[in-house]
Amino acid sequence: MPRDATLLWALRSPCAFACPHCYFGTIEEHKPAPPNEVGVLSHLSRNDLPPRALKAFARTLAGSPIERVVIVGGEPLDWPPTLEVIELIKEADCQVVIATNGIPLTRPPVARRLIALGVDGVSVSLDSADAQTNDRLRPSRSGRFGYDDVLAGIRALLEVRGDRHTPRVGIYTVVMRQRPQEITDMAHLADELGVDYYVPQPISLTPDHKLFKELTHRREDVQAVAEQLDRLYDEPGRLALPDPSYARRFIAAISTQESGHVPDCFGGARLFFIQPDGSVWDCPSDRRIAATAPERQRTIRDGDARTLFATRPACTDCSLFSRDCVNMWPLVLDMPRLLNPGASR
Predict the structure, then answer these.
(1) Which pairing describes strands 316-321 and 197-202: parallel, antiparallel, or unpaired?
(2) Of 13-22, 114-123, 156-165, 175-184, which range is least confident?
(3) What are phi and psi for residue 212, nearest 5 degrees?
(4) Rounded CA separation 244/202 (Å)
(5) Is the peptide bond prior to 74 cis by the omega test (within 30 degrees of 0)?
(6) For a Cys staple, 298 with which of 18, 280, 314, 322, CB 3.0–4.6 Å?
(7) Span 302-336, pLDDT tens digits
(8) Which has the closest alpha carbon to 273: 284, 285, 287, 286?
(9) Which alpha helices (DSSP H) does 105-195 contain, by range?
(10) Which domains does the chain carry?
(11) Are 235 and 198 in contact (CB under 8 A)?
(12) Contacts of 254 (CB under 8 A, 6+ apart)
């Protein structure tokens, strides 16, 4: 059984930030009206699987097709069982990449534990190279944390890593329509900080989102974004970036709100998405989730990765390409490059 699949695994979702564009939605909007639609995420953890169920599933990853597990939240490192789950995943001989807001990295025991566990990559979210702008886009829920703390967390992890090759450390940036310059500004900041890789990604909001008109790219924004992406890939630097074809997908995605066509899509073949409640989907695309027939809905509850992912189809054409698909390529096809100590743009 080949091990070539990536598992995007969303664990418990509380987070120190209250980003209004978060794909989990906001606590404020979900408290009075908790979402009950299939596949819709929420920071309210009413149906999250308990730690024992997560650990039981993690133990079945050995001998499964899963090569790499990308752990996301919310903020997974604020939930103590996450480190225990990571340990089990590493024991199953899988790569582990963890996505974080960076604040937990300021706690020395967390940074040291990630090193000790042999985590392969740490991707930190930061949406602006300007402190005030970032903190407006990513406001702290308590008012205690912000841009400076995120940078402190990155520096702390790099310091603890020392001259080791792992974990590779990167920055992910959500690019919004008013600020195309963040594509290159964030790359310069990432280079100054000494991180290893950088991935800008287009914001993806549903048309009924209250910030859709303000933040979502339109066709008239394409030229400014394309110019910034060209600069990013043309400038010499040591940062590892996604394959240049990523820039073309970025532009294709923001050029329309209609679904696009992807030949040989890896969703459901080499990529799977697990929600905190244990639901398993071919990928995190809201359009693909909505198109999943009820009889094809699965869960990791009492499940075994060796059988759950055993009968994978070949990559097939998909007609549901959209903005929330774009950053799946770095997770699946580009991650070996981003985690390679010798890689650069």
Answers:
(1) unpaired
(2) 13-22
(3) -55, -50
(4) 15
(5) yes
(6) 280
(7) 999 999 998 888 888 898 888 888 989 999 999 99
(8) 284
(9) 108-117, 131-137, 147-161, 182-193
(10) 5-339 (3.20.20.70)
(11) no
(12) 202, 217, 218, 221, 222, 225, 323
